[in-house]
Amino acid sequence: GAGVSQSPSNKVTEKGKDVELRCDPISGHTALYWYRQSLGQGLEFLIYFQGNSAPDKSGLPSDRFSAERTGGSVSTLTIQRTQQEDSAVYLCASSLGGLGSYEQYFGPGTRLTVT
Amino acid sequence: AQSVSQHNHHVILSEAASLELGCNYSYGGTVNLFWYVQYPGQHLQLLLKYFSGDPLVKGIKGFEAEFIKSKFSFNLRKPSVQWSDTAEYFCAVNAKGGSYIPTFGRGTSLIVHP
Predict the structure, then answer these.
(1) pLDDT tens digits, A48-100
(2) For residue range B27-54, what is the model confidence (pLDDT) as tens digits?
């Protein structure tokens, strides 16, 4: 079946512009995660959605970052007034359930470059 | 808060050499443990996982990992690596009853020379 998809695969933007990154999780997966991966660093957790519960936003680095998940499926990560330090690969993952008891399925990522 | 340490950031081996990648975590309670792999140009994918039971778990492609609770470790091993094992390897820990968000290590880049 289809895996997790993300779009765009690459995004180059100018400093100060807003960007939207999209994630389509695997159908039926209730949990969705956003991570940021910078060169030489691990995966930095950003935000977590589980079913209809309020999202866990504890990993968002600043109020320029926000995310939503519509209808329990597609999610959009928005970065406002982008900065050069926002350049990274943004990964989305979904899992069958939450509570960390299920493996995560990752998308291919969106490589964001802020010039 | 839980944390994960992968001490080997870069490992270079020749084919047929044995592999052991270290993973240590800090959390005093019960954990779920994962190893993920990212082959060049591909998605992160699960290599193996430990939830409970036999602390020696087998994964895909001949990999295994051993959970040693007293050492807070979950090291990844393979007796004989192949060129196709060249990849980035990430250890992840999720604390049962704690944060439900897996914490990832920084990753280990493995290069296997043919």
Answers:
(1) 998 888 898 989 999 999 999 988 799 999 999 999 999 999 999 999 876 66
(2) 878 889 999 999 998 999 999 999 989 9
- How distant is the Cα of A39 from the closest Cα of chain B, in angstroms? 10
Q: Which residues 92-111 of chain A have a CB within 8 Å of chain B?
A: 93, 98-101, 103-109
pLDDT tens digits, one per residue of B76-104: 999 999 999 999 999 999 877 656 678 89
Q: Which residues pair with A56 in a beta bridge?
A: A48
A40 close to B (CB below 8 A): yes
Contacts of B107 in chain A (CB under 8 A): 42
Overall average pLDDT of the A13-36 stretch: 95
3-state secondary structure chain A: CCCCEEECCEEEECCCCCEEEEEECCCCCCEEEEEEECCCCCEEEEEEEECCCCCECCCCCCCCEEEEEHHHCCEEEEECCCCHHHCEEEEEEEECCCCCCCCCEECCCEEEEEC
CA-nearest residue to B101 within chain A is: A100
Residues 6+ apart with CB under 8 A from A49: A31, A32, A33, A55, A56, A67, A69, A75
> Is B51 within 8 Å of B32 (Cβ atoms)?
yes
Q: Considering only alpha carbons, which residue of chain B is nearest residue A89?
A: B43
> What pLDDT, on the 0 to 100 scale, is given for residue B45?
93
